Amino acid sequence: MASTSDIRKGLCIHYNHDIFKIIEFLHVKPGKGPAFVRTKLKSITTGKVIDNTFSAGHKIEDIRVETQAFQFLYQDQEGYHFMNTETYEQIQLQESVLDAPGLLKEGEVVKIQINTEDDSPLSVDMPQYVVLEVTATEPGLKGNTATNASKPATVETGAEVMVPLFINEGDIIRIDTEKGNYHERMKK
């Protein structure tokens, strides 16, 4: 058993007869009244995100997890297929388990949290940044240099990302997987 002081991003817990992953949390100590922890929980089984508030000192039932490196192989109508980089064992996951499936490129290595009780995969942790090539975008208009102006661009995985006006087709960009935002242009 853990308490609210052990809450951290990525922690998997039993809550309301389901398994949830904490995706955001905030410890709040108001000037009046007891402290509490405001959280956003994502259901591992359904992918639904809920908000919940735990009072300070509340006991939570955490799940023992083991993190293993897996390489993304391909995606088809059955799901997303991954291979363990050490044992070469392959697993298949549904899209609801993935945080940013649109940014997942074949060959990308991710960390998958596995429940040690029943060896079931709980969640996929993407690297903080992915490097992808821009395959389609409109050219920036001359004179359109308003502060923080951006345009949509499609990357090689098919995802659409808002990028600055100077990005062109064929450019290699780094994308923040947590927010799905453009981070920087890479040298070729």
UniProtKB/TrEMBL annotation:
Protein's UniProt name: Elongation factor P
NCBIfam families recorded: efp, PRK00529.1
Primary location: cytoplasm
Lineage top rank: taxon: Bacteria
Keyword tags: Cytoplasm, Elongation factor, Protein biosynthesis
Keyword Cytoplasm on entry: yes
Family: Belongs to the elongation factor P family.
PANTHER family: ELONGATION FACTOR P, ELONGATION FACTOR P (EF-P) FAMILY PROTEIN
Cytoplasm keyword on record: yes
CDD domains for this protein: S1_EF-P_repeat_1, S1_EF-P_repeat_2
Cross-referenced InterPro entries: Elong-fact-P_C, NA-bd_OB-fold, Rib_uL2_dom2, Transl_elong_fac_P/YeiP, Transl_elong_KOW-like, Transl_elong_P/YeiP_cen, Transl_elong_P/YeiP_CS, Transl_elongation_fac_P
The organism of origin for this protein: Nonlabens xylanidelens
Gene (name only): efp
Gene Ontology terms: biological process: peptide biosynthetic process
SMART domains the record matches: EFP, Elong-fact-P_C
GO molecular function terms noted in the UniProt entry: translation elongation factor activity
Gene Ontology terms: cellular component: cytosol
Residue span(s) of domain Elongation factor P C-terminal: 130-185
Cellular compartment(s): Cytoplasm
UniProt pathway annotation: Protein biosynthesis; polypeptide chain elongation
Protein's job: Involved in peptide bond synthesis. Stimulates efficient translation and peptide-bond synthesis on native or reconstituted 70S ribosomes in vitro. Probably functions indirectly by altering the affinity of the ribosome for aminoacyl-tRNA, thus increasing their reactivity as acceptors for peptidyl transferase.
Translation elongation factor P/YeiP central domain mapped to chain residues: 67-122
